[in-house]
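Cross-posting from the chemistry board since nobody answered there.

I work mostly on the small-molecule side, so proteins are not my area. We synthesized magnesium ion and want a rough idea of how it might sit in this target. Sequence and SMILES are below. Is it possible to get a predicted 3D structure of the two together?
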Amino acid sequence: MSNNHTPGAAITLVGCAKTFADGTRALEPLDLAIAPGETLVLLGPSGCGKTTTLRIIAGLESPDAGGKVLFDGADVTRLPIEKRNVGMVFQSYALFPNMSVVENVAYGLRVRGVAKAERLARAGEVLEMMRIDALADRRIDQLSGGQRQRVALARALAVRPRVILLDEPLTALDAALREHLRAEIDGLLRRLAITAIYVTHDQAEALALGDRIVVMRHGAIAQIGTPREIYFRPADDFVAGFVGVTNRLEGAVRGGRFETAAGALAVEAADRAAATLAFRPETAQLCVAAGSGLRFRVDQVHFQGARQRVLLSAADGSRIVLEAAAEVVLSAGDEVGIALDPSRIALV
Amino acid sequence: MTGPSAPPDRSLINTTHSQPFLPPAEAKAMPSADRLARLFLLPLGLFVLAFFLLPMVRLVAVAGAGPNGAWEYLALITNARHFGTLIATLVLSAATTAVTLAIGVVVALFLGRNRFPGQSALVAMLTLPLAFPGVVVGFMVILLAGRQGLIGGLTQQMGMGRLVFAYSMAGLLAGYVYFSLPRVLVTLLAAVEKLDPALEEAARSLGASRAQVLRDVILPGIAPSLMASGAIAFATAMGAFGTAFTLATRIDVLAMTIYTEFTLNANFASAAALSIALGLITWGVLAATRNLSGDRVAAAG
Ligand SMILES: Nc1ncnc2c1ncn2[C@@H]1O[C@H](COP(=O)(O)OP(=O)(O)O)[C@@H](O)[C@H]1O
Ligand SMILES: [Mg+2]
């Protein structure tokens, strides 16, 4: 399957803004370059413009004057969706209720004029790849949510598109199934080496699936980066807060040291009167022995089996959350120190 | 209502009787009230049944009581004039249905997909013909395509001679379509607005052209409403009288023939037999579409 797949297209957005007829400014001018075969995740809260961006790439919306969409360097801004050869997976799946599973999957080939025998064979191949060949003759209303999701993906892939666009494809499913399908989609996109743009508001999905993540806010890009960059070095408070739990300590940088109410820490940064140190709960090491850089008092301990979650507060009352190995015995009121890995903290 | 064990306190008994729906009495009162209702329902039901059935029974009896006896029922087929009328009526009704649905789908798709100022006013205006009886619609067709009509005047000025089609099949068709369109449009508009736009977008993303989207997504999606409104258009056209009465000078339709048979020719048996045929055909079409679409279809007009 992967060798006869159309190679993924490189996609470039240049100055794509979107103002809807009612005056809603959904996107500020946006530049974005997506490499062939890359899986790019658009992440952000509801209403931040993810779907609009996806629809502009698909050709379902046109950008405001001046905006341009390029596929492999060719300007497709004026090309309608039916001519762009994109695969789309909708949040509601949008499967045709008047067609069986295999007819749904073969539909794109049918409208391309592929002969019946060949299109059924090719649809069968894709169904097999998605491990739903047993469902070929079912009606859509006889399928579960997870099965519908697979059919929607199979239908989009059957036409061997240059790019596959997925708009919150897992949001309608329950948590366990979501995780399962996420891993499956991840494997599939990597195997096919197809360019994929994946919209989600779920940070766990974004971190697991993306080669790169675009975090969006109010119709603009807040940060672009690999999942690691986004997670460990969030560009600002918004990104940090949106992607997982983040600890934050206010202080100042003086002479290569970040000084805060909890103590001081060596950092590589220029002097600053006001700075915030941000780090994830699992990046800090708890040291019961006295003498480390930052000192806290234990407020609460939540035992979770293999790990425990420890809530701490500094002398000025600022609170942080930590994860520690379960073996360390802690109780409220204990004085502890924390050590931070300098490569996994961010000073903003 | 009060059981025999009720205390012999007069005031209490009085209360119970004057207010029979007090909570303790209610439980006992229900079954008897139910029985009472059934007692009233029975004659009501009989009356309704009689109201529905008697005219039809009478119709059947009258049709068979003419000089031809039961053969009168076959007159529709054996009498060449009546048979021609039947065919003309069927063709006209089928054509009305097809044209009304075609226009209805196009207009409903346009109105359902686009938003523009004055839209609700336009929709309200399109349903205006609902307020006109068939006679008025026929009158309007004459004003438009009659001997002194607007269209005739226009074609004459363009040097193509006076185009008059009000009294032909085309005139009847125009009147019937005008009459049926609002009913069909209201149903189709609701169906179009219920279509999931993502379905259409999905088809387009797979490469479907506009015509293919129409064939594979839109028409199947509104099929139940097409059936229902088509059946209504057909039934309305089969029985339309007012428009036909105003326009049908050259061609006969069943409703007109029935009218002339019993008013002018006093041929009650023939009129009754034709009425039964008209009723059965229309009812059959409605029943068939109801079975096919699984939707409820009510005859109108
Ligand atoms: N067709 C439309 N007309 C007007 N406003 C719209 C339309 N589609 C989306 N919007 C608005 O544009 C903004 C971005 O929407 P969207 O791209 O759907 O966000 P997201 O997918 O990130 O939740 C929202 O404020 C939304 O209300
Ligand atoms: Mg969205």
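Reply from a structural biologist on the board:
Welcome over. Reading the output above for you: The pocket of magnesium ion (ligand 2) is lined by residues A 50-51 (CB under 6 Å). The two ends of chain B are 50 Å apart (CA to CA). Happy to explain the token format if needed.
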